[in-house]
UniProtKB/TrEMBL annotation:
Xref: InterPro entries: Pepsin-like_plant, PEPTIDASE_A1, Peptidase_aspartic_dom_sf, Plant_Aspart_Prot_A1, TAXi_C, TAXi_N
Record-given protein name: Peptidase A1 domain-containing protein
Record GO terms (molecular function): aspartic-type endopeptidase activity
Organism expressing this protein natively: Tetracentron sinense
Family the entry assigns: Belongs to the peptidase A1 family.
GO-annotated cellular components: extracellular region
PROSITE patterns (UniProt xref): PEPTIDASE_A1
SUPFAM superfamilies: Acid proteases
Superkingdom to which the source organism belongs: Eukaryota
Ranges of residues in domain Peptidase A1: 100-434
Annotated keywords: Aspartyl protease, Glycoprotein, Hydrolase, Protease
GO biological process: proteolysis
A Pfam family the protein falls into: TAXi_C
Length: 441
């Protein structure tokens, strides 16, 4: 818990009412209209990433990714299980557990910003000068005083009147927001608006004036990177502000040149192949209905209902851009480990970090090529995981099942979404999957 001065109700009112709010100071009129666009996604460990560290091995990357996945799961659990506290509303952003980055330009003149693309976050935010507390980032920190189109969302505006009791008395006329995280991290700043520009894959600039974002000047804890682009369905996300009803992404596996990884919005989005309905109208997470899992032709014996969201918001199955490895309820993962262990005739060995549950000794990935495939059965479609999206190189000649246990919510990680076109149709309330070679498509 970071700040007891933040009142969840006030934040909720702000978040809801601001969508309908227009004033000469800050109006939110950014919409895609005909501006459909497609932007590049960069995996954090790709050589093109500002976070790339050439000194660490693939195996260390896999372990670091596993730790990030576990932290993110804890973060989800803390949010989902908090029912009536600050945690329920305030911390819907994600600290640096993100995986895919996107570049954009902000302000006039435009300055480059990179941020984590996060389907489970509700706000665009970045660090801003002058900082009370900022963590180090590789890019210069955004300086709003240098942007002629920057505006603060003002405290005397109707939504901020509700918000005032929270932070306004402390800080002039800026409308302060605060985000607190279970791990003690926090991010606070002033709600603002400015012109945001994406460079699409054809190198055209697509510009959105007056996009609302959080200008964070007081951050503490475990962040990295320069911010987040929230892509869930809450009012302040990029998706809601642009009134995007369709988007899709295709992620290239990391051992290939990942310059083909991208996210497409509007009519550029590809909604095709097998479709499964969104399981709930929850606007924070994209829940799907996972009905079962198979290894080869054998359906696993998994207790009924373990992937369903309960009435008190426990469990469920989320599709997420920001979790690396799929997190499965232990009842399911144990069974999957058991059956794969029986069917794959390779020597098994514990990996030294004891993170992964099932590892095989293999000379190369090819030894696993003939292993039976894992299929996730969603309501309406099956997703067959290619071997490259099932096993990860854990070093020391070990290849490990790239899935980790959860005792609550399950998450489809982005490692398992590689070489799939994943489409979100928010009008039809469905998600689509098509196997695609994202590098060449
Ligand atoms: C941040 O950068 C400054 C200056 O380069 C450096 O002295 C400091 O150790 C860095 N802090 C962290 C946490 O990396
Ligand atoms: C897009 O905007 C960036 C930032 O201002 C600029 O460097 C780039 O040249 C622009 N590209 C085009 C095609 O206008
Ligand atoms: C499966 O999806 C259909 C719509 O495609 C829906 O009517 C049905 O209720 C769903 N079943 C479950 C168990 O969610």
């Amino acid at each position: 818990m970071v700040s007891s001065t933040l009142l969840p109700a006030a934040i909720a009112v702000l978040f809801i009412s601001i969508v309908f709010y227009t004033s000469p100071c800050a109006s939110f009129n950014a919409k895609t209209g005909g501006d459909d666009f497609s932007i590049r996604l960069i995996h954090r460990d790709s050589p093109q990433s500002p976070l790339y560290d050439p000194t660490i091995t693939a195996a260390d990357r896999a372990k670091a990714a596993a730790h990030r996945s576990i932290s993110r799961l804890h973060y989800f659990q803390s949010l989902i299980s908090a029912s009536s506290s600050l945690m329920d509303i305030a911390p819907k952003l994600t600290p640096d557990r993100g995986e895919y980055l996107m570049w954009y330009h902000l302000g006039t003149p435009p300055v480059p910003v990179y941020a984590v693309a996060d389907t489970a976050s509700n706000l665009i935010w970045l660090q801003c000068l002058p900082c009370k507390n900022c963590y180090n980032q590789t890019q210069p920190i955004f300086d709003p005083s240098k942007s002629s189109t920057y505006k603060q969302i003002l405290c005397d505006s109707p939504p901020c009147h509700e918000f005032e009791s929270v932070r306004c008395q402390e800080d002039g006329d800026g409308c302060y927001y605060g985000l607190a995280y279970m791990d003690g991290s926090s991010s606070m700043g002033v709600l603002s608006s400015d012109t945001l520009t994406f460079e699409d894959r054809m190198r055209n600039n697509i510009t959105f004036p007056n996009l609302a974002f959080g200008c964070a000047d007081d951050n503490s804890g475990s962040f990295k990177g320069s911010g987040v682009v929230g892509l869930n369905r809450e009012p302040f996300s990029l998706i809601s502000q642009l009134e995007v009803t369709r988007f899709s992404h295709c992620m290239v596996p990391p051992f290939q040149d990942d310059s083909g990884s991208r996210m497409q919005f509007g009519s550029n989005a590809l909604i095709s192949g097998g479709k499964t309905p969104l399981a709930t109208d929850d606007s924070t997470y994209y829940y799907l209905t996972l009905e079962g899992i198979s290894v080869g032709n054998e359906k696993l014996t998994i207790p009924d209902g373990i992937f369903k969201v309960t009435e008190n918001n426990k469990g469920g199955f989320i599709i997420d851009s920001g979790t690396r490895f799929t997190m499965l309820r232990s009842e399911a993962l144990d069974e999957l480990v058991k059956v794969l262990g029986e069917k794959i005739k390779l020597e098994q060995k514990k990996e030294s970090g004891h993170i992964f549950q099932l590892c095989f000794v293999a000379r190369s990935f090819d030894d696993l090529a003939s292993a039976p495939v894992v299929t996730f059965h969603f309501n309406g479609t099956d997703v067959v995981l290619p071997q490259q999206s099932t096993y990860v190189d854990a070093g020391d000649g070990l290849w490990c099942l790239a899935m980790l246990p959860s005792n609550d919510v399950s998450v489809l990680g982005n490692f398992q979404q590689q070489n799939l076109n994943v489409g979100y149709d928010l009008s039809a309330k469905l998600v689509s999957f098509t196997p695609i070679d994202c590098a060449t498509f």
